[in-house]
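Hi P.,

Sorry for the delay on this. The queue was packed all week, but I finally got your sequence through. Input first:
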Amino acid sequence: MKNFVNYLSYAPRKFFVALLTLSLVAMPLVGVLAAEDVTIEGSLGVANQTAGETRWEEATSASFDDEVIFQVYYHNREVCDTGLVADNLAVNIDLPQMVSGTNQVVSATIKGDNTNTVNDSVAVTLDRADAALQFMPGTVVWKHNNATDGTENIVTESLADSVVTGEGFQVIENVQPCARYDATITFKARVIVPAVEVTKYVRVLGESEWVRVNTAQPGDTLEYAIGYKNAGNTNQNQVIIRDSLPPTLDYVEGSTMLKNASTSGQYEAFDSDEIVDDGIIIGNYTPGSNAFVMFQAVVPAAAELECGVTEYRNVGVVQPQGMNEFFNTTSTTVENECEEQPEEPNYVCEALSVSDATIKAGETVTFTANAQADNGATIKNYTFVYGDGETETVTSNQGEVTREHTYAEDNVYFASVDVAFDVDGEEVSDTGNEDCRVKVTVGTPETPEEPETPETPKELPNTGPGEVAMAAFGTGALGQGVRVWLSSRRKLSSLLLNK
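Then the structure:
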């Protein structure tokens, strides 16, 4: 050994470098082979246990409340006498938890510290879109050979739920080589459906039978009952019950009552009136448990109801936490017989028409008058006023009357008709109705010419002082006197000058 060391110390530098390089290259290769020097195999199977399936398959179908069983299989494929152990073999199971849908996929991954990795999956088809798979706690079972001397000692053990529900890989064991050491892990899931049943009933206070459709009288008090049942196979928490009460029904404050297991099956007063508003929370319910909520409402009095039949459609609503709303309804009809109110008398002169609105003197025209009267009113007579000083009254209860009239002179005439009615024994007239007035033009009436209005000059002509004075005074008596005086002055001046 010593001589070998001395040889290395005197060996050529190139040989030493080559030896070092070979060792560095070889070391990682050995490490890679050591990391996966044991080969394992495995699979995932499924069967509908409720349906009686006995073979592990890649897929199955299931319905509400069916139990489905899954199996993870693994095996160290190395030769029995090699002693190649799969160290820390672990599994990772992915079971969708409370994920609704018709297509569910469950997968498993198997690996050890020094093995290859195996992945497999199975499919479960559910018959409802709101269904889901729920892991059944306490159902994880490990079947394996616990002998260490090469013999067989098959045992069945329960494993923790975390093998299925935990995060990441769960270590199971160090797996010995040989087929006699293969093993399985089975677990179960149940098909759940968050089902809710809602019933709704009504009765008039004092009656004993609950019904869904009934009749009531104005002013009656109605009792409503909303029934709830957890018809699924999972717990339903913070269940809310609400009632959509028609706005014209008056809720009776303090009338809400609850009946469930906590009240020993008897109705007890509930300390909230929110049943007809946001609703009340009635607690948590296990599969199959139920509850009833009852309250009262008052139908409006006859004076507040319309005449005839009114329908009150009432909706009960149930909503467990995290779920949709579920509904049911009742219907109550209320008949309000009102005394018929007499209609107001109706009477009116509807129209007056003329056969020809333009005629010649001496020609005859026909007038037609129309009137209406009902609801206790009748027509007594028509009085035609022709506009030329003549009138004519015709006694008739008919809705239409015609009369002829001749105009003797050219002119424009306005004819009308006044209708008299009998209303509950009193005479009433419809006069001055523009619809019962017409214009008749006879011949070509002469229209007197209007006198012309002389134009006033915008300014007086500038003709000197004398003419201005005449213009100022020439039109009145004073002006006339001034003219005479001026004339006499001119004559006097002429005489004096001639002397």
